[in-house]
């Protein structure tokens, strides 16, 4: 079967999904081991019977709801291609808002940064890729996820130390210019947990007590002991949690507290600066 015909067939098979055209192309590129430009440049390319069979199996799994990132084992984030497994959250484009905000507030000198609950390592590795002189650490509670983050760091040749433990516990005696985190923030009763890709992701990386705010409360309360004067805390949160997280930050003594919106115009990241003058 020629590529153009197969491409149309796959899109029809995935019709009704969130992004049938994109999903079909990503799976085609994965099986053919070609860039997306190849799909446009070589419509007459003959796809082998073996490749068609492999695609049919992947399409069946996708129609059952399995995330494309799990089918291919990878997801692009920022400028990096990351290995992804069911042990972690799949990096989302909206999390790039947090990376952008972090890069805009880091000092001109080499800085110390830590990413809490790093998962694939997406946030920490993105910052390190843009600021190679910075010392970037990452913390992850899940041993499987920590191992994945280390693999991504090694493959990308980015020097990020990954420590295992709960939030700031593995960082005794250390201070940072910035703490960033995309923690669990979904209420356990949220009906969206039964929909889409999250059905295939670890609940421990999604759900938090206290209407989804428990981990954010803990991080905001613990962060000041690990921030230099003038240091920043940035966290991602749910689209309905902006006002609540803003209050959590101010209640814990942070200044210049701001909530940023994602690409869909929803509240997504709140940040605040620890009082005091940043050292030069």
From TrEMBL:
<feature type="domain" description="Release factor glutamine methyltransferase N-terminal">
    <location>
        <begin position="5"/>
        <end position="73"/>
    </location>
</feature>
<feature type="domain" description="Methyltransferase small">
    <location>
        <begin position="97"/>
        <end position="188"/>
    </location>
</feature>
<feature type="binding site">
    <location>
        <position position="167"/>
    </location>
    <ligand>
        <name>S-adenosyl-L-methionine</name>
    </ligand>
</feature>
<dbReference type="InterPro" id="IPR040758">
    <property type="entry name" value="PrmC_N"/>
</dbReference>
<comment type="similarity">
    <text>Belongs to the protein N5-glutamine methyltransferase family. PrmC subfamily.</text>
</comment>
<dbReference type="InterPro" id="IPR004556">
    <property type="entry name" value="HemK-like"/>
</dbReference>
<dbReference type="InterPro" id="IPR019874">
    <property type="entry name" value="RF_methyltr_PrmC"/>
</dbReference>
<dbReference type="InterPro" id="IPR002052">
    <property type="entry name" value="DNA_methylase_N6_adenine_CS"/>
</dbReference>
<dbReference type="Pfam" id="PF17827">
    <property type="entry name" value="PrmC_N"/>
</dbReference>
<feature type="binding site">
    <location>
        <begin position="182"/>
        <end position="185"/>
    </location>
    <ligand>
        <name>substrate</name>
    </ligand>
</feature>
<dbReference type="InterPro" id="IPR050320">
    <property type="entry name" value="N5-glutamine_MTase"/>
</dbReference>
<feature type="binding site">
    <location>
        <position position="182"/>
    </location>
    <ligand>
        <name>S-adenosyl-L-methionine</name>
    </ligand>
</feature>
<dbReference type="GO" id="GO:0102559">
    <property type="term" value="F:peptide chain release factor N(5)-glutamine methyltransferase activity"/>
</dbReference>
<dbReference type="InterPro" id="IPR029063">
    <property type="entry name" value="SAM-dependent_MTases_sf"/>
</dbReference>
<dbReference type="InterPro" id="IPR007848">
    <property type="entry name" value="Small_mtfrase_dom"/>
</dbReference>
<feature type="binding site">
    <location>
        <position position="140"/>
    </location>
    <ligand>
        <name>S-adenosyl-L-methionine</name>
    </ligand>
</feature>
<keyword id="KW-0949">S-adenosyl-L-methionine</keyword>
<dbReference type="GO" id="GO:0003676">
    <property type="term" value="F:nucleic acid binding"/>
</dbReference>
<feature type="binding site">
    <location>
        <begin position="117"/>
        <end position="121"/>
    </location>
    <ligand>
        <name>S-adenosyl-L-methionine</name>
    </ligand>
</feature>
<comment type="function">
    <text>Methylates the class 1 translation termination release factors RF1/PrfA and RF2/PrfB on the glutamine residue of the universally conserved GGQ motif.</text>
</comment>
<protein>
    <recommendedName>
        <fullName>Release factor glutamine methyltransferase</fullName>
        <ecNumber>2.1.1.297</ecNumber>
    </recommendedName>
</protein>
<keyword id="KW-0808">Transferase</keyword>
<keyword id="KW-0489">Methyltransferase</keyword>
<dbReference type="Pfam" id="PF05175">
    <property type="entry name" value="MTS"/>
</dbReference>
<dbReference type="GO" id="GO:0032259">
    <property type="term" value="P:methylation"/>
</dbReference>
